[in-house]
């Protein structure tokens, strides 16, 4: 996907944010299902006002947008829980920049490969009960939504990376 900045820059971008109260990943917070390890701040929470989110948060959010849908609609072939159920969330959230980028690339590849294999009927089929309150929407609408998420947060990641580089360059000049 071409997201990887230089390793040192990537690791610095993955650390807690430049502003007090940033939502970030990794956090040692525990996910609502009780599993330990890394999670990302703000999971299933909607604080007001919404905090600034770090590059790490945006990477994890973008990756999980794809991985939860892949789990729901391509791995879980039965009449399992809907897309919003925690069972579809990854067991582990990456704790380093390199792992975060790898996680995003893996989630993208699996999502891409599954949607690329859909025929016209698969694209037109309603999401059904697994789609939650989007049950009547076709798979094509979900794909468009995920594309918007990837473009939106991918653009933010690029801007924050560029701002970080420009700020660092001007401070060392």
Automatic annotation (TrEMBL):
Q: Which domain of life is it from?
A: Bacteria
Q: Which InterPro entries match?
A: DinB-like, DinB/YfiT-like
Provide an example Pfam family for this protein: DinB_2
Alphabetical list of Gene3D superfamilies matching this protein? dinb family like domain
Q: Where is the DinB-like domain?
A: 45-157
Look up the signal peptide feature and give its range: none
Please report the name of this protein according to its UniProt entry: DinB family protein
Native species of this protein? Paractinoplanes rhizophilus
Q: What are the top taxonomic ranks of the organism? A: Bacteria, Bacillati, Actinomycetota, Actinomycetes, Micromonosporales
């Amino acid at each position: 996907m071409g997201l990887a900045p230089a390793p040192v820059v990537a690791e610095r971008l993955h650390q807690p944010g430049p502003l007090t109260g940033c939502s970030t990943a990794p956090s040692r917070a525990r996910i609502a299902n009780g599993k330990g390890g890394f999670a990302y701040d703000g999971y299933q929470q909607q604080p007001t006002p919404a905090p600034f989110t770090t590059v790490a948060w945006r990477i994890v959010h973008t990756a999980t947008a794809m991985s939860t849908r892949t789990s729901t609609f391509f791995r879980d072939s039965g009449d399992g829980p809907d897309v919003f159920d925690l069972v579809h969330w990854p067991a582990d959230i990456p704790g380093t920049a390199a792992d975060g980028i790898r996680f995003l690339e893996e989630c993208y590849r699996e999502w891409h490969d599954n949607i690329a294999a859909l025929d016209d009927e698969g694209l037109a089929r309603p999401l059904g009960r697994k789609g939650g309150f989007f049950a009547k929407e076709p798979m094509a609408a979900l794909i468009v939504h995920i594309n918007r998420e990837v473009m939106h947060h991918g653009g933010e990641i690029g801007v924050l990376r560029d701002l970080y580089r420009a700020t660092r360059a001007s401070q060392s000049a």
